[in-house]
Amino acid sequence: MAPAKVSVPLGLQPAKAWTQPRPLGTVLIIGPWNYPLQLVLAPLVGALAAGNTAVLKPSELALATSSVLAELVPQYLDRSAVTVVEGGVDVSTDLLAQPFDHIFYTGGERVGKIVMKTAAEHLTPVTLELGGKSPAVVVGGDLKAAARRIAYGKFMNAAQTCVAPDYILTTPAAAPALALALSEAVREFYGSDPQTSGDYGRIINDHHFDRLVTLLDDGTVVAGGKYNRSERYIEPTILRDVDPASPLMQEEIFGPLLPILEVEDLDDAIRFIGERPHPLAAYLFSDRDEHLDAFTEQVQAGGIAHNVCTIQLAVPGLPFGGVGASGTGSYHGRQSFDTFSHLQPVFSKPTAVDTLRLAYPPFGALKRKLLRKLL
Fold first, then answer.
1. Cα 110 off chain centre by
2. What is the number of other CB atoms lying within 10 angstroms of the CB of residue 250?
3. Angle between helices 289-298 and 266-274 (to 10 degrees)
4. What is the DSSP letter of 357?
5. Single pTM value for the model
6. Nearest 5°: phi and psi at 351?
7. For 151-161, b where at least 16 C-beta lie within 10 A, e where not — what string?
8. Residue 375 pLDDT more than 80?
9. Mind telling me which InterPro entries this protein's record contains (predicted)?
10. What is the pLDDT of residue 367?
11. Which backbone phi and psi does 369 adopt, to 5 degrees?
């Protein structure tokens, strides 16, 4: 929060200049259903640290969490600084029509466009944390280690995670062994029957369950594939023989289906990713430095991670956000403070001696020469 000194050119001396972070005002934070507590409170920390007041709109699809937030936030936070507004689409529509000073939205691309369009009516700045089809490219290294890390990042929360690996790109030679290693990793994590595991989640609602089940026909199931609608349970599922033009590959899956597609090499994988909208995250598994460098330099994504999935979010100093279709703006750590602040520039010059006389007209040859040197 402290002012930061900025140097002043000699021609403007004597004077002082600095930047001063200022609160934006009142911000609206719209949370998602997949991590309905953390993804409301985490941006709130940055908003309050920057000195703003906030309106929280939890997801109506995670009704229990929304109710708990509405009950507890007024008990523990100043009601004049933070309020919780519950409700569905109509409530969100009414909120978006208000002239907030900033809107922070976490969710899908479709609603993100609505938020951005509505905010434009008031010229309200937005932070959009969206999703996308985050690829995991496997072109080297320990396949079993890669499989464990991909399975961990993919199937936590039944794959309802915005930075979960959405699909795998690997070579024809590695694909069979990788599929087998992924199946083994699933058994290691969740047992022979993940339906009985206390560590494996369920799909949020019937709509998303039905959507995911229809996608099972877009490839050959090589592991998993079982489901139970009454429990909204879908087994961790590995698919091969997937057509890149199939519905499975058109939008973010956001569920426990993991397609494996084959590419010739890393260059082919980079081309595949580049032909599609920018993902929120991109993962490369390789033990070759030239691979890591090429992937980092040539892949445009919200974030890049080498030989891990999802855990990059646990580094507080790394900004988190998307690019292009996967979002705009970022937060986490210091970036959360900056997102909810206006970095106000301040310039201060005394009037005792008017050193600006040199800059006033009329401009003769000598004055022009001096101004060019000083400014």
1. 15
2. 13
3. 10
4. G
5. 0.93
6. -110, 0
7. bbbbbbbbbbb
8. no
9. Ald_DH/histidinol_DH, Ald_DH_C, Ald_DH_CS_GLU, Ald_DH_N, Aldehyde_DH_dom, Aldehyde_DH_NAD(P)
10. 85
11. -65, -45
Q: Which of 129, 252, 275, 290 is catalytic?
A: 129
Residue 23 host element (H or E): strand 16-23
Q: Which two tokens stand for residue 104?
A: 């922070």
| Side-chain half-sphere CA neighbours of 313 within 13 A | 19
Q: How far apart are CA 152 and CA 150, in angstroms?
A: 5
| Extended strands (E) in the chain | 4-6, 16-23, 26-30, 53-57, 82-84, 102-106, 126-129, 135-138, 167-170, 220-223, 227-228, 233-234, 237-240, 257-262, 281-285, 303-306, 320-321, 327-328, 330-331, 341-348
Give Dmax (Cα) for the chain.
88
Distance CA 174, CA 176 (A): 6
273-329 pLDDT, tens digit per residue, is 999 999 999 999 999 999 999 999 999 999 999 999 999 999 999 999 999 999 999
pLDDT in tens, 53-64: 999 999 999 999
Active site residue 129: yes
- pLDDT, one tens digit per residue, over 72-84 is 999 999 999 999 9
pLDDT of residue 355: 84
Neighbour count for residue 294 (Cβ, 10 Å): 16
